[in-house]
Amino acid sequence: MRVAPLLIAVMVAVAACAPTESADDPTTIAPTTTTTSPADAPVCRSGEMPFVEEGVVAALDSQGRDARAIGGIRRYALDGCERIEIEFLSTTGSPASRIGPVGVSILSDSGIVRLTLSDTIADSAVADTTLNGDLVDAWFVVEGIAEGLVVDIHLGRRAAARAFTTTSPAQLVVDLIPTRENLPIARPTSEGGIMLMSPQSGVGLYPIRVSGYSAPNVDAVRIRLSDSTGVFVDRSVSTRSSVHVWHAFDVGLTDGPSGSIDLFVGTVDEDNEPVSGVEVLLNLP
Fold first, then answer.
1. Which residue has the higher pLDDT, 181 or 125?
2. Of 180, 175, 158, 182, whose CA–CA distance to 48 is shortest?
3. In 3D, which of 209, 157, 218, 228 has the Cα closest to residue 191?
């Protein structure tokens, strides 16, 4: 996990403890170490809020907002479900009271739950972590997909999600349960600080959309199309940012070579030789 130097980072905890909700105030959530009996539903399955398997999960808002940065992200692995809690900081570095508008959607074919935050939340104390849970594999804080920051939760299998917010302190809570049909997902390809969302390897057509995000220490991404005879397309995309999070890139290639083509997305050295990144084999007409 990467931690930004200018913010008070809240440590990411992967624990088997379960948050419980106060009977007097359903928005109060606190992690506990109590054991849930088999007869009791875990907190991330309780209640009547529905779970969504595809598309828009929730469009949330609150009156007023003081959240300016992501303070930390926690995951709770419970019995048959997982809960993600995201905490927020105000401009003073103290816990924020209200988040403001939030959009939550699930891209089931890609295995991603995407949390889109308002443009007033422009910094983060954390950038990513790998979890390798039953449902959640990892999460990434990304700049450049929307006006504000985005948190992408990468799933290891198909899941359904629901989401809600709390106030004082401000939190965004996402509950996840496995779906009945565990169909395969087209997971993004990751290597050398590059997360490539598209294209997938195989047969493709022009225009090609090359999209994904790069790690905080990657200032530029090189995109190349080549075959055994040489390089046909060679572009550099800046991903430099003052925010210590992952940065998105999205490039459309309208034309290029035909046949069996190698797509390279990554970093190069001073001699323009590939250093690290993702290689995808495409079959183009």
1. 125
2. 175
3. 218
